[in-house]
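Shall we go through a protein fold together, starting from nothing but its sequence? Please make up or recall a protein chain and show it to me in full. Go ahead whenever you are ready, and we will take it from there.
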Amino acid sequence: MHIHILGICGTFMAGVALLARAAGHTVSGCDAGVYPPMSTQLAEAGIALREGYAPEQLAEFNPDMVVVGNVMSRGRPIIEELLNRDLPYTSGPAWLAEHVLRDRRVLAVAGTHGKTTTSSLLAWILEQAGLEPGFLIGGIPANFGASARLGTSPFFVVEADEYDTAFFDKRSKFVHYRPRTLILNNLEFDHADIFPDLAAIQRQFHHLLRTVPNSGLIVANGQDPHLAEVLAMGCWTPVERFGVGDWQAWNIAPDGGAFDVAYQGKQQGRAEWSQLGMHNVHNALAAIAAAHHVGVPVTTAIEGLRDFDGVKRRLEVRGTVNGVTVYDDFAHHPTAIATTLAGLRARVGTQPIIAVLEPRSNTMKLGVFKDSLAPALVAADAVVLYQAPDLGWDLDAVATALGPRGQVCHSLDDTLAAIQAHAKPGTQVLIMSNGGFGGIHERLLQALHAAAG
């Protein structure tokens, strides 16, 4: 079967493409933004890519099935051509559910923050336990080098996104997955282009709860009040809560770079690992709990954490030049920005941090977080904000709230110059964006090399 994917370079749709290719299908696709790392792994898998959404590609490829990403909407010429030609089409989540998840033991990870890291941790723990899981993750776990694989066992880990499914299916993606083990990491307002308020997101999360059988398990953050409200709406599945505090089923006691794990009041072991921040400790605890539900001993899970190498674009070190270290991070919500900065600050101590932010998510463009951005960035010594032409609102107020450390730049060249003006040996440059940011990471490293002679 030839499958053509519209919006193939999104993290989820790229994973669908890789799974379809591994299952023996011919796969092609298109996207308006084709950039690494997704474009690289797709090309390496032998998947033909087209830049843009020209409707002629439907005749060129003549696919048996078109899988439509949620970036597509009515009115686009390629969608109108698809409908007018009466070609078979489906959504990415529906294709995944029908062709991959139907006969699998699904472990899903949902929440506003930490889904990618927690999914990667869970897949790695299962791998270390010899279970060879399949997975589809919204990023590239360094231990696997790919965002998706079919796996050889019944177990399948899926990052369960609350964003809508497609232009013809406005339910959240995760209602398609029917997990038996479900992690609920946290819940905040996001995706303002889809949801009018937090209550609308909570309703979708409750739809997800309705799909988990009473023989399954929900692993929930016991310290998140918004998740507590969702569970109070009705829950038919056993719940194990995790967090800090003896009243949780799964408890952590942080101690520097290590943490102790307890289950139902009994110490299970001490985890040593290389990841930064308390948010990642919570992610690890959730993954340990989910793995335990499918039979992985806690000691085995703890041992697996030692060799966990993280996820690309999650505080990923892109290079160090003349003592200046450049990081790439996907943070695009004030909470994620603040926790990422806190984790880096805990690691580097008093070394100066330059935070570089491109606000480009749909919620950012709507200005929903304009008043919470400055407080999220206070742990940085200098902040460089990139004012993209299509942002839709002015970043100057954010810079003003940050005082002398805040600066707005209106071009990538000016952004690079501002970073270099602050950078000196020992500086940590944290670049945050949920897009390619014009290849700024490599451009900065090249500029630093050139300056170093």
